[in-house]
């Protein structure tokens, strides 16, 4: 009875470690890509953002840096003056400021979730190593492959939804993530939606998916390879004793 209970606890610890690791990988993929300034610059150039909205590249980069620093909590506001179509003015209006406050809260929630999951992953893994020694990696590999199969289906579905109808995908994301309609910006009055149109966010989302999927697949292949090696060793040891 005790042994059965301990095995159950081990399984729970393994799944906590795995689910936590997957969330960490997802948030890291989001964090890295959302703050990659080279991506912003390349998209601005490709979409001809500065020309289309009447801003110099210098002002466009300045406004972008202000937004990213604000999200990273390196400053407490997004106040910045820019020249738009020859007129000097504040870059962002009150509605955009309020929306960025919501975005910052969402980002901070994601970072806190990542940190909590990292602690859970390390704690659960340490427990399994203490309990199972070398068997911990075997259990983690087996359970990761099981969990990965489920997550792969979920994320593949979401990826296909984004691919075939990005606007619907992006709208649903905002409706789930925010409790107000501040994200419904107007291209005629709000600079932010002109700086970051749908093609920009589409490219960003698929970069995030690609990075996350890459790390996801690498871990799956490592788990599979490790289990194959372990199985071959066991088969060899059994053959020697026959």
Q: How does this structure look, described?
A:
The chain is mainly alpha-helical and 242 residues long. It has helices at residues 2-34, 37-47, 49-53, 57-71, 94-132, 135-164, 166-177, 191-195, 198-241; strands at residues 81-84, 87-90. A two-stranded antiparallel ribbon has the order 1-2. The model has no long low-confidence stretch (mean pLDDT 91).
Into which percent range does the helicity of residues fall? over 70%
Strand portion, in percent? under 5%
Q: N-to-C terminal Cα separation, in Å?
A: 33 Å
What structural class do the secondary elements suggest? mainly alpha
Major beta sheet, strand line-up: 1-2
Give the averaged pLDDT, no decimals.
91
Q: How many strands, what sense, and barrel or not for the largest sheet?
A: 2 strands, antiparallel
Give the helices and strands as they follow along the chain: HHHHEEHHHHH
- Tell me the number of helical segments per DSSP (H or I, 4 or more residues long): 9
Shape: elongated
| DSSP strand tally | 2
Sequence stretches where pLDDT stays below 50 over 5 or more residues: none
Radius of gyration: 23 Å
Task: Sum this structure up briefly.
This protein is mainly alpha-helical and 242 residues long. The protein has nine helices and two strands; from the N terminus they run ααααββααααα.
Task: Give the SSE map.
Elements: H1 2-34, H2 37-47, H3 49-53, H4 57-71, E1 81-84, E2 87-90, H5 94-132, H6 135-164, H7 166-177, H8 191-195, H9 198-241
Helix pairs in contact: 1-5, 1-6, 1-9, 2-9, 5-6, 6-7, 6-9
